Amino acid sequence: MSETELLTGQLLFEFRTIKAMVNIYCKAHHPMKPSHDVCEQCREFLSYANTRLDRCPYGQEKPTCNKCPVHCYKPHMKQKAREIMLFAGPRMLLPHPIMAIKHLLAERKPAPGLPPEGASNRHERKRQMS
């Protein structure tokens, strides 16, 4: 399933933001990949991020990951995400200015409390199917 089939709204914007960051990171760190795509390692990370966004307990009200009280990434993937974001975050402003500014504004929102039951995108898709 592609990202557009799984995610909608704010979650899709969040995935496109991380995808843009991964593209910047991969281009600088993995130069042996095809010029229009990311390497296998980065593709696996994007797939993992897509799944985590789909299953985020906050659903469309998801805070940015560094503000979130629920840490759903495995430790090694969390470290990889941090590495990618630290490298690509400052470099996002020129190629993706709107995305970068929206992400910075989202980080200013206060951390939410506990997530509501069944608010994840995955739960929403299951409700729509039945």
UniProtKB/TrEMBL annotation:
Supply the Pfam families for this chain. YgbA_NO
Which InterPro entries is this protein grouped with? Answer: Uncharacterised_YgbA
Start and end residues of each stretch annotated as Disordered: 109-130
This protein's name: Nitrous oxide-stimulated promoter family protein
Q: Which organism is it from?
A: Shewanella saliphila
